[in-house]
Design a protein that fits this description.
This protein is mostly beta strands. The chain contains 2 helices and 8 strands; from the N terminus they run E-E-E-E-E-E-H-E-E-H. An 8-stranded mixed β-sheet has the order 1-6-5-4-8-7-3-2, with helices on one face. A hairpin with a 2-residue loop joins strand 7 and strand 8. The relative contact order is 0.26.
């Protein structure tokens, strides 16, 4: 996972059954064994395939607990108002996010909220 791209504009939704959905913009290549890395804090990483990882920036504090407890999430990739792809990604809960994320200059939810 060398190529990170930050997804700053995404939606997290919960179904009536409690399933969590991430709506993100469509990507150019296909996912292969996708999974989400999450430490319960500000950012999650969707590993779409071996070469591409998407940083889900600023996880809302109201969603964090549900996300930590979810075994999987459903990722929906959209292009304008159309669904391009949808797939299940396993959740991998970790104690600490990968060190190379710090090089991206990501801020916390609280820091983002202070800018408004």
């Amino acid at each position: 996972m060398q190529n990170y791209q930050t997804e700053g504009n995404y939606i997290v939704a919960e179904s009536e059954e409690g399933e969590l959905y991430f709506y993100i913009s469509a990507k150019s290549n296909k996912p292969h064994h996708p999974y989400v890395i999450y430490d319960g804090k500000d950012h999650a990483v969707l590993a779409r395939n071996e070469e591409q990882a998407v940083v889900l920036d600023y996880i809302n504090p109201d969603v964090r607990d549900k996300l930590r407890k979810a075994p999987v999430v459903i990722v929906v990739e959209t292009l304008l108002d159309n669904i391009k792809d949808a797939y299940i990604a396993d959740m991998n809960i970790v104690n600490q996010m990968p060190d190379d994320l710090g090089k991206l200059g990501l801020k916390t939810w609280e820091e983002l909220s202070l800018k408004k």
